[in-house]
């Protein structure tokens, strides 16, 4: 039988996609020992939006969450998603921060770091990849999958070769919007396997309904693994269901390495969690519906709902068709960036502004200006010359690596926090999300004092 690795995403992407990453540790603690017995290749459980959400909404120390998950996982590899030089935030951090963050992630229990850059500019993942390997982690480099006139097989294969030459241990085709069709997946996995030696993992979402078929074609083309979510938190904007994929693949002669009965036990432990989120209203069944619009407009489902919300807030929902027509034009003007965070938001806002002000680029967003100056990395294609001129004037855009211009951050942050930081991890939380981390430290201090004084009285 051919091996097929299964990565379970319920603790990261599935809950991020369905319930805005609001699952506290206490909701899944009881499932961890059962998950460890299931035989997954890995469990994606950290990174992405989980770090921000722990500090901002759940009053949890994200590092402590990682250590606690690790303590339950004796047999299973832990996996995280890292936005390259952006780490888990939305702007570029200095190299000293990136190296410390990566090292601490591994020291606290992480095994596999899946690392991507929104523009597929590999200079933005090289520091994280380098440190991951030095610290003994498994570095998985990503190709962000997107469709455009310039994103062809040649470009994707060239990205794959760059990922291999950076020294990555494996490659992931990351289809964040669920728009990769079965045939496109088959062709891309096949082409990469002909050109590079790295094992290839495929990540997609069930958003457009293509996901299950895409995974079967990934398997046929020789992919090493796929990402799935336990059935009660699968489908829609989440991943295809683990149990269903394993059922189908096993019949087709693949050894997924998992125990099907154990998958059932794991799912039964998440069912009440899902029901609680449904009752509280945080789990909106709308996210489970199949949205083929993404295939028509070539924009991710999440971005479409953002545009609708933006226009409703402006009392201009009647302009939606114009904004949907303007979005691909803005993307073209910017050299076809993949529509993933933060570019999806930047392109969407600019398209809306262009339509509502009745004149294209009458007002240009601050982030779009930084992008045109080269501060996010190299645009995949050429930026429209007139737009570039409007932003840059006679200046030249940056061609070097933006992080090379950033001064080290760690020492100043540690000095600022003083004794409020109890560890290097605290300082890194602060650098990543200053406001949220400081508020978290304050709450932690108060809880500690309250407990301590209670002891004194009692
Ligand atoms: Co995803």
Summed up:
With 458 residues, the chain is of the alpha/beta class. The protein contains 20 helices and ten strands. It is globular, with a radius of gyration of 22 Å.
The first-to-last residue Cα distance is 63 Å
Ligands and ions found: cobalt (II) ion
Count of helices? 20
Strand order of the largest sheet: 2-3-4-5-6-7-8-9
Q: Uncertain regions: pLDDT < 50 for 5+ in a row?
A: 453-458
Helix content: 40-55%
What is the SS-derived class? alpha/beta
What string gives the helices and strands in order?
A: EEHHEHHEHEHEHEHEHEHEHHHHHHHHHH
Record field, number of beta strands? 10
Radius of gyration: 22 Å
Summarize model confidence as the mean pLDDT.
94
Beta-strand proportion:
5-15%
User: Can you tell me the overall shape?
Assistant: globular
The largest sheet, given as strand count, sense and whether it forms a barrel, is:
8 strands, parallel, barrel
Question: Any overview of this molecule?
Answer:
The chain has 458 residues and is an alpha/beta fold. The protein contains 20 helices and ten strands. The strands form two sheets. The chain has an eight-stranded parallel barrel, surrounded by seven helices. The longest helix has 24 residues, at 434-457. It is globular, with a radius of gyration of 22 Å. Residues 453-458 have low confidence and may be disordered. Residues 13, 176, 203, 205 line the site of cobalt (II) ion. Residues 13, 176, 203, 205 line the site of cobalt (II) ion (CO).
SSE blueprint and pairings:
Blueprint: E1 2-3, E2 5-8, H1 10-19, H2 25-36, E3 42-47, H3 50-56, H4 62-72, E4 77-82, H5 95-107, E5 112-115, H6 126-134, E6 138-144, H7 153-165, E7 170-174, H8 182-195, E8 200-203, H9 211-220, E9 225-228, H10 242-251, E10 254-255, H11 260-280, H12 293-297, H13 301-313, H14 320-333, H15 343-356, H16 366-372, H17 385-392, H18 410-417, H19 424-432, H20 434-457
Parallel strand pairs: 1-10, 2-3, 2-9, 3-4, 4-5, 5-6, 6-7, 7-8, 8-9
Helix pairs in contact: 2-11, 5-6, 5-19, 7-8, 8-9, 13-15, 14-15, 18-19, 19-20
The protein binds cobalt (II) ion.
């Amino acid at each position: 039988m051919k091996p097929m690795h299964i990565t379970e995403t319920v603790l990261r992407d599935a809950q991020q996609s369905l319930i805005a990453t609001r699952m506290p540790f206490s909701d899944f603690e009881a499932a961890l020992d059962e998950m460890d017995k299931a035989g997954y290749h890995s469990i994606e459980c950290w990174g992405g939006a989980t770090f921000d959400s722990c500090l901002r909404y759940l009053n949890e120390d994200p590092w402590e969450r990682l250590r606690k998950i690790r303590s339950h996982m004796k047999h299973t590899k832990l996996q995280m998603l890292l936005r390259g030089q952006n780490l888990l935030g939305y702007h570029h951090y200095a190299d000293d921060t990136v190296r410390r963050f990566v090292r601490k992630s591994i020291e606290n229990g992480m095994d596999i770091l899946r690392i991507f850059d929104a523009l597929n500019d590999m200079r933005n993942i090289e520091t994280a990849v380098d440190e991951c390997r030095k610290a003994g982690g498994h570095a998985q480099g990503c190709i962000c999958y997107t469709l455009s006139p310039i994103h062809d097989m040649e470009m994707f294969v060239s990205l794959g070769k760059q990922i291999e030459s950076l020294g990555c241990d494996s490659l992931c085709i990351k289809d964040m919007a669920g728009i990769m069709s079965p045939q496109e997946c088959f062709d891309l996995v096949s082409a990469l396997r002909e050109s590079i030696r790295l094992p290839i993992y495929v990540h997609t979402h069930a958003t457009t309904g293509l996901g299950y078929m895409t995974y079967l074609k990934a398997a046929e083309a020789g992919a090493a693994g796929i990402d799935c979510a336990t059935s009660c938190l699968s489908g829609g904007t989440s991943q295809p269901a683990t149990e269903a994929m394993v059922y189908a693949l096993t019949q087709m002669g693949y050894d997924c390495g998992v125990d099907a009965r154990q998958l059932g036990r794991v799912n039964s432990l998440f069912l009440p969690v899902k029901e609680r989120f449904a009752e509280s209203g945080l789990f909106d069944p709308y996210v489970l519906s199949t949205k083929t619009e993404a295939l028509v407009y070539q924009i991710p489902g999440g971005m479409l709902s953002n545009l609708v919300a933006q226009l409703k807030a402006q009392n201009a929902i009647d302009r939606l068709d114009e904004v949907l027509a303007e979005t691909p034009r803005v993307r073209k003007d910017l050299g076809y960036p993949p529509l993933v965070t933060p570019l999806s938001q930047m392109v969407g806002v600019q398209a809306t502004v262009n339509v509502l002000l009745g004149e294209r680029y009458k007002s240009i967003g601050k982030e779009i200006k930084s992008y045109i100056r080269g501060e996010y990395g190299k645009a995949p294609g050429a930026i429209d010359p007139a737009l570039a001129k409007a932003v840059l004037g006679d200046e030249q855009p940056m061609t070097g690596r933006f992080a090379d211009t950033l001064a080290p951050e760690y020492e100043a942050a540690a000095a600022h926090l003083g004794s409020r930081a109890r560890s290097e991890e605290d300082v890194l939380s602060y650098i990543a999300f200053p406001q949220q981390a400081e508020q978290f430290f304050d709450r932690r201090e108060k809880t500690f004092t309250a407990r301590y004084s209670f002891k004194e009285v009692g």
